[in-house]
Fold this sequence. Notes:
Blueprint: E1 2-6, H1 18-28, E2 34-40, E3 48-53, H2 56-60, H3 76-82, E4 86-91, H4 93-102, E5 110-115, H5 124-134, E6 141-146, E7 151-156, E8 161-165, H6 171-174, E9 195-198, E10 207-211, H7 214-221, E11 227-230, E12 234-235, H8 239-251, H9 257-270, E13 273-274, H10 275-296, H11 298-304, H12 307-313
Parallel strand pairs: 2-4, 4-5, 5-9
Antiparallel strand pairs: 1-10, 1-11, 2-3, 6-7, 7-8, 9-10, 12-13
Helix pairs in contact: 8-10, 10-11, 10-12
The chain binds flavin-adenine dinucleotide.
Amino acid sequence: MMAARKQQPIEGAQWTGIVSAIACEMLEQGLVEGVVCVQNTAEDRFQPFPVIARTPAEVLAAKVNKPTLSPNLNVLEQIEQSGMKRLLVIGVGCQIQALRSVEQELGLEKLYILGTPCVDNVSRQGLQKFLDTTSRSPETVVHYEFMQDFRIHFKHEDGSIEKVPFFGLKTNQLKDVFAPSCMSCFDYVNSLADLVVGYMGAPFGWQWIVVRNQTGKEMLDLVRDQLDTQPVMSKGDRHQAVQQSIPAYDKGVTLPMWAAKLMGVVIEQIGPKGLEYARFSIDSHFTRNYLNLKRNYPQKLEQHVPEYAKKIVAQYKLPE
Length: 320
Ligand SMILES: Cc1cc2nc3c(=O)[nH]c(=O)nc-3n(C[C@H](O)[C@H](O)[C@H](O)COP(=O)(O)OP(=O)(O)OC[C@H]3O[C@@H](n4cnc5c(N)ncnc54)[C@H](O)[C@@H]3O)c2cc1C
């Protein structure tokens, strides 16, 4: 693991563009013939449009998150038809789990997988509800992220940044926007990818890199000379913040904005940082999802929840 950022960030990327940079290098150096990635449709910047990019320009056209469910595996048939033998797939955990299960059927000589962590994805309508209830100007949002300072940062078309504290979210109205698949997901960190690039385990402004195997190392080495890096750090204790998040999610508690802002400031000062922030985010989502399964799909609970997630959940007191 390490924290990294591009010395020269790619303008308009989600963070500094490490994902796009690796994909471009892999094409340019001939390691792969194509890259499965997610562009947007001509009409809607947030409507995902999965493609097989064959040039760096097509990869760069896919930069920035389309924070909605994307049917990435629809392009698998095209891979078989194209006769490609070497492929890079960029994707979130559920896409990669499905891909791994059919990997042997694709007739590839080499498959590289560049993953991102992912949580709380939504349908396009769900995203609109989130933007409409949370941002001061939903139609001009070009990019947003749930940041390590416990605020959502919305970037608008004019370049301005709007910050809304997590604790001020209208959770009572937003309870149903998350996709049912995300409410039962325990693969936040994309464990089947070769290399994972996120942000939540890194200091603010940096990206968080997890190299999972030799293939992932090979991929990261392609851009090492374009990166500043530093070791990961960890500070604080997440447990209390996670415990408090459980009833907040469960009951849809919404604080008045002044209290939410105050809480955001306090928690930013004393709250978990670096890897401990990542653990906060993982644990609070795993407890929420475990509770969701326990209440709505009790017959599937035992078989569906992986052992590592059960260990995480066992650290907290859950309501009935
Ligand atoms: C839906 C979603 C949720 C995320 N949640 C978290 C999180 O909770 N914690 C965390 O640390 N990181 C999360 N990430 C990863 C993080 O936001 C950045 O994508 C990552 O750090 C890469 O940044 P970058 O600047 O290198 O990416 P860029 O160079 O801008 O490239 C972004 C890549 O994302 C791909 N992409 C865009 N939309 C989708 C989609 N809907 N499905 C699959 N792939 C897509 C594109 O193909 C593109 O190649 C999430 C990413 C997505 C797509």
